[in-house]
Amino acid sequence: MAGELFPVARVCAVLGRVARCLLLGGRKGHVAVVDWRSKKLTCEFHVHETLRDVQFLHNEMMFAAAQKRYLHVYDSTGMELHCLKQHLLINSLCFLPYHFLLVSASERGSLHYLDTSTGQLVAEHKVRLGPLRCIAQNPHNAAVHLGHVNGTVSLWTPNIKTAQVKMLCHRGPVMSVAIDKEGWSMVTAGMDALVKVWDVRTFKPLHSYRSPRPALALDVSQRGLLAASCGRLVQVWRGGLRGRSEAPYLQHSLSGDGSSLQFVPFEDCLGVGHSSGVSSLIVPGAGEPNFDALELNPFESKKQRREGEVKQLLEKIPAELITLDADDISKVEQG
Amino acid sequence: MKVKVLCRNPQDYLRQRTTDIHKVPRNLDPALHPLEGPREYVRALNATKLDRVFAKPFVGSLSGHTDGVYCMCKHPTKLSVLLSGSCDGEVRIWNLASRDCTWSFVGHEGFVRGLCMNQDGSLFVSVGEDKLIKQWRYPGAGESQEDYAPVATILGKSVYLGIDHHWSKPVFATCGDRVDVWDQSRSEPIRSFSWGVDSVGCLGFNPVEHNVLATCGSDRTVALYDVRTASPLRKVVLEMRSNSLAWNPTEAFNFTVANEDSNLYTFDMRRLDKALCVHSDHVMAVLGVDYSPTGREVVSGSFDKTLRIFRVDEGRCRDVYHTRRMQRIFCVRWSLDSAYVLSGSDETNIRLWKAEASRTLGKLSGREAVAREYTEKLKEKYKHHPQVRRIARHRHVPGMVYRAAKEKRLVTEAQRRKRRNIERHSKAGTVDEPSTKKKHIVSVVE
Fold first, then answer.
1. How far is A185 from chain B (nearest CA, A)?
2. Is there a contact between A284 and B5 if contact means CB atoms under 8 Å apart?
3. Residue B270 exposure: Cα atoms within 13 Å on the Cβ side
4. Which residues in B lie closer than 8 A to residue A330 (C-beta atoms)?
5. pTM
6. Which residues of A touch B42 (CB under 8 A)?
7. Parallel, antiparallel, or unpaired: how do β-strands A62-67 and A51-56 relate?
8. Does the predicted interface ipTM exceed a cut of 0.95?
9. Helix crossing, B36-53 with B386-393: angle to 10°?
10. Burial of B98 by CB count in 10 Å (0-12 exposed, 13-18 middle, 19+ buried)?
C-alpha cells in the first residue's frame, strides 16, 4: 500500500466481516474504503479533525468513525449518516455483529452500547478505572474486554452496571487485548513488554512471552495464530495459545511503527496499519479454509448480501441475553 | 521456496449461469457459529410469532341447510364425502373438496337425531324425532333424486336420540329410552339394554374392540356394554350429564365424554374411578367431541360458540376457533386425514377448519419442509421460556368467552386457595383434597 497517501502518525486498518472491503482511518482524519480484492477505491474523504478509531457496522455498507469529539456514522459512499453527540471523546470502537451493538469506550471512562438497528443507547456504564483505550470483544459470548491503565482487564456485559470480572494482568498499563474465536483464551499485552495468554473461562494464566517492545496491537486468527506488533516488528506465533511455543513462527519488519493489526478472515493474510501506511503480510495457515456460506460468504452477490442483512436483522439477539456463559439460555435450572 | 497459502478460485464458489441456484458451501464447526443458544432462542421466538401471523384456520363453509345442523357422519373410505342431518329433517351429502352439496333429501319429519354409515360406505342409517329408523343406500352415479327412497324403514315405540354402526358386523345400535342393538336385515332389535335410566342421549361403538359400546345417559352416567352379552359392563356417574362421547381410534380402552359442566373427561375403560385427563377450557356446555385419527388430539364444540382442540394428555386447549357468524355448535368431526376439522352449528352452516391453524395446505417443497421441521423443533425446545410461551398461548376469544373464562378462573382460584388454607391450618392428615381427576366423579357402578 502506498505510504504517501498516509503521511500520518497512525493508521487504523479494519476489514469487514467477509473480507471484501478494507477501511483505513488515519490519525489526522483521512478515511478511505478500498475493495481489498480488486484494490478499487470505494470512497475517500477527509474529516479534518483527529480520528481515533474506525469500525465497520453489520456489513461493509456502513462504518462508524470516532472523531475528535463525537461519533460519526458514514455510508460506504462517504456520506455522513449520523453524528452521535451522546458519545463524547471515544477512543476505541467494537461491533457485536449478532446483537447489532456498537460498543464505544471513551476517554472519560464510560462504556456505551448503541443498538445500530434501532438507534437506541442500550447501556452506558461508568467504568471508573481511568480513560478507556483498549477494547476487545469475545466472539464466543459477546462480552467486552477492556484493558486499563492500572494493568487490569475487566469484562463487561450491557445488563450489569459493574464489571463482571476484573483480572490483574500486567504491571503497567494494558496496551492491547485479543480473544480467540472460540472464546477459550485471551491474550493481553502490557507496557511491561510481556504478552500473556490467559484461559478466559477459568481466568487463570497459561503462559507468557517476552516481546522486544510493548505490543501495541494483538490479533488472533481463525486458526489460532497470534500476531503482535511490537514497535516496527510484527511477530506471529503458531500454536502459541494452547501450548507454549519457543520461538515466533514469523517475524516481519515494518517501515513504520505498527498501530493496528488484523488477520484477514478466510485468507492466509495479515493486514498491519502503521505510520507509513498499510502492509499486508502472507501468513500461511492463518485463515479458515472452509467457510460457511450461511454465516459469512466472501463471494456473496449483491442480492445475497441484501437478503442476508434482512435475515441478520430478524435474528438480532436482544442485548439482555448477553451473559458470560453463552449457553445459559438453553440450560435447565437445577434445584 | 514453496509457500503453501490458501488460494481460492472464485469460479468454484460462484454459480455458472444466472439460472442456477447459488452455491452454499457449509461448515458446521461450532467455532464458526458462535452464540448458538441465543440465536436459536431468537429464531424460536420469531417462529412462534410467525405461527400466530399465519394462523388462518378457516377454510370454507358448506351452506345449504335451512335449519341448524344437528349431526354429521364421515364416510369411512372417501375423504371428501360428508353426510349431515339438520333440525328440519333434511339430510345432505357434501363434497368437501368443492364444498358443494351433491345430494339432498328429506329424511325425517322433525330433527334428524343421528346418522351412521356401515364400514364400506355402501349403506347409511338415519334416525329422527319421528321415531323412524331409515336405512338408505349411498347414492351412486346416475341415480335420480326424485326416486330416492330408503331401503328399509323401521317404526319404533319412542323417539330415537342417537345411532352408531358396528365397525365390522352389519349391526347398528340406537339409543332413546333404552339402547337397542339392531341387525341390518331384521326389523326387531336383537338385543336391548336398559340400566335404570329414562333416556340415553348418545352412544358410540369402540373402533378397536368392536363389540364394546359406550352410552351417555340423562342420569349423568356413562355406561359401557358388550353387545355379545346380555348384561351391561359398568358405568360411571359424573356430576352433570354428558352430551357426547368419542372413542380413541388408536388406544382401544380410552374414550372422551363431552360434559354439561363445560369439561371433557378422558377415561380409561378399565379404571373408571379416575379420569385420565380433565380438559377444561370451555365456558359453557360441551355439545360435541371427536377424536383425531392419530388418537392424540380431540376436537370439541360447545354451546359458547367456540371450537377447541385439546391434546389428549393436556388439560388446556391447544387452539380455539370462533367466528362472529358461527353460533352454537352441535356437532364436530375430525376428517380422516387428520388435517381438517368440521363443525356443524345452529345457524345452518358446516364450517371446514384446518386442524393446525398455521399449516400450509398442499405439498411443501423440499426446502420448505426442512425449514418447517427445523422451526418446529426449535419451538418445541424453547417452548418453556416465558416470552415464547406467552406468544404461543395467546389467542383472541369473543368477549363473552373471555369474561366468562376470567370469572371461572377467579372462582376456581378462590376455591383452591380456601381449600389450601384449610388444609394448611388443620392437623396433618385430617383434610384430604381430592385430585381434579377424581373429584368430578361421583361413583362407579359395576
1. 13
2. yes
3. 4
4. 37, 40-41, 381-382
5. 0.91
6. 315-318
7. antiparallel
8. no
9. 10
10. exposed
Question: Which residue in A268, A293, A317 is closest to B25 by CB distance?
Answer: A293
By Cβ distance, the residue of B6, B24, B42 closest to A317 is B42
Cell 372417501 found at: B78
3-state SS track over B346-368 = CCCEEEEEECCCCCCCCCCCHHH
Contact A172, A153 (CB under 8 A): no
- For B240, the grid coordinates are 352433570
Residue % of chain B over a pLDDT of 90:
82
A269 three-class SS: strand
Q: Flag whether pLDDT at A4 surpasses 50.
A: no
Mean pLDDT over the full length of chain B: 93
pLDDT digits (tens, 9 = 90+) for A5-29: 444 456 777 787 888 888 989 888 9
* B190, B181 contact by CB (below 8 A): yes
**Rounded CA gap, B18 and B21, in Å?**
8
Cell digits for B238? 359424573
First to last CA, chain A: 60
Please give the Cα distance from B158 to B181 (Å, whole number): 15
Cell of B115: 346418522
Supply the pLDDT for residue A10: 66
Bridge partner residues of B352 (DSSP):
B60, B342
pLDDT (tens digit per residue) in B223-255: 999 999 888 899 999 999 999 999 999 998 999
Nearest C-alpha of chain B: how many angstroms from A132? 26
Burial A41-77 (b: 16+ CB within 10 A, else e): ebbeeebeeebbbbbbbbbbbebbbbbeebbbbbebe
The grid cell for B162 is: 342417537
With cell 485479543, the residue in question is A178
Q: Which three cell numbers stand for residue B192?
A: 336391548
Strands B317-321 and B329-334: unpaired
Q: What gap in Å lies between CA B376 and CA B48, rounded to an integer?
A: 9
DSSP string, B36-86: HHHHHHHHHHHHHHHHHHT---EEEEEE--SS-EEEEEE-SS-TTEEEEEE
The grid coordinates listed for B288 are 360435541
pLDDT tens column, B66-76: 999 999 999 99
On the question of pLDDT at A3 being above 80, the answer is: no
Side-chain-side CA neighbours of B328 within 13 Å: the count stands at 11
Q: What span, in angstroms and rounded, lies between the C-alpha atoms of A235 and B38?
A: 36
Q: What single letter denotes the amino acid at residue A99?
A: H
* Cα separations in angstroms, A5 against A31, A46, A258, A280: 11, 12, 16, 16
Q: Is B387 helix (H, G, I), strand (E, B) or coil?
A: helix
Helix axes B36-53, B366-381, angle to 10 degrees: 110
Angstrom distance (rounded) from CA B23 to CA B18: 12
Query: Mean of the pLDDT values across residues B18-39?
Result: 93
Q: How many CB pairs under 8 A join A and B?
A: 93
- A67 to chain B nearest CA, in Å? 31
